Amino acid sequence: MESAGKKPRRPRCSFPPEFKAEIVGLCRRGDRSIGQVAKAFELTQAAVRDWVKQAKVDAGGRNGLTSSEPEELAASRRENRRLREDVGVLERATALFAKETR
Fold it and tell me: Which among 40, 42, 59, 71 is least buried, having the fewest CB atoms inside 10 angstroms?
C-alpha cells in the first residue's frame, strides 16, 4: 500500500570525504543555505546537515564523537571482548591444574 504524498526512499549512497568536505565548505561560506546546497547536488537536507554537524565536532566546535572515534571504540570493544575470553580460558585452566595437584 502506498501512502499519498510520500516520496519514495532514495537508495543509500556513500560519498568520499573530499566530496563531503566540499559540500560543508559551500554551506559554511554562507552564500547558500543547506537546503539550496542539498538541492543543487541532489542530496537530502538531513545528510548535508549531518555532515555540517560532524565537521563542527571534528573541528572541536561542538561536543560529540569525532569521525575516527566510533571506529576506535569498536576496535577497543573487540579487543576487550577477546581479552575477557582469554582471561576466562586462563581461569578454567588454573582451576583444572589446581584439581590435578590435589
Answer: 42
The model carries a pTM of 0.60
**pLDDT tens, residue order, the chain (102 aa):** 555 678 777 677 889 999 999 999 999 998 889 999 999 999 999 999 999 999 999 888 888 888 888 899 999 999 999 999 999 999 999 999 888 887
Q: Name the residue range of residue 91's domain.
A: 68-102
Give one DSSP letter per residue of 17-80, joined into a string.
Answer: HHHHHHHHHHHHHSSS-HHHHHHHTT--HHHHHHHHHHHHHHTTSS-S--TTHHHHHHHHHHHH
**Residues 23 and 55 occupy one common structural domain:** yes
Whether residue 53 is found in the same domain as residue 81:
no
* 44 and 59 assigned to the same domain: yes
Q: How far apart are CA 20 and CA 52, in angstroms?
A: 9
CA–CA separation, 80 and 78 (whole Å) = 5
